[in-house]
Amino acid sequence: MRFTHPGYKIASLVAALFIVAACSSSEPAGSGANTGVTTPGDLGATQEGLAASAGDSVFFDTDSSTLTSEGQRTLQAQAAWLAKYPAVTLTVEGHCDERGTREYNLALGERRANSARAYLISLGVDANRLQTVSYGKDRPFAVGSDETSWAQNRRGFSRVN
User: Fold this and answer.
1) Where is this region: Disordered (predicted)?
2) Which of 13, 16, 73, 143 has its CA 20 to 30 A from that of 65?
3) What are 72-105's pLDDT values in tens digits?
4) 120 pairs with which residues across the strands?
């Protein structure tokens, strides 16, 4: 069946406009579950706010759960950000690259998450605000079998709950 009547074309155009309008959003970038006080340019107590203000990832050397000096600086910034938003809780995720067994990487990811959590607690963050989880090599950030990808996957990621 062909729809050649001009009314069908107009109806199709109107329907397409409604679909496009329904897919657009008037919310500004970074809006979401905001539980703190914001200032202009501040993304608030959101994942985007943490990433922009402090960074949300710390990276580790191969087979290591020892924080680097750069990782410590990131966590210091996260502790300052958490002090600004006292209602926020985080889950620190431990991740690994694709090498090693699943069991080994789950244990290494757990040590990485706990290392970051312990450092945040040493900086005065209430332990009750921090959870940990290990994903081992199951949720890679970068897909690839090269040093660049592996380096991006050896991380502790702080997720705003």
Assistant:
1) 27-47
2) 143
3) 999 999 999 999 999 999 999 999 999 999 999 9
4) none
Whether pLDDT at 14 is above 70: no
Segment 65-73 long-range contacts (CB within 8 Å, at least 24 positions apart)? 65/108, 65/111, 65/112, 65/114, 65/115, 66/115, 67/115, 67/116, 67/119, 71/116, 71/156, 72/119
CATH number of 71's domain: 3.30.1330.60
Give the domain extent around 58. 47-160
Query: Under a CB-based contact definition with an 8 Å cutoff, are residues 158 and 92 in contact?
Result: yes
Assess if residue 142 is contained within a domain: yes
Mean per-residue pLDDT, 32-49: 71
Q: What's the rounded Cα separation, in Å, for the pair 160 and 55?
A: 12
**Structural domain contains residue 108:** yes
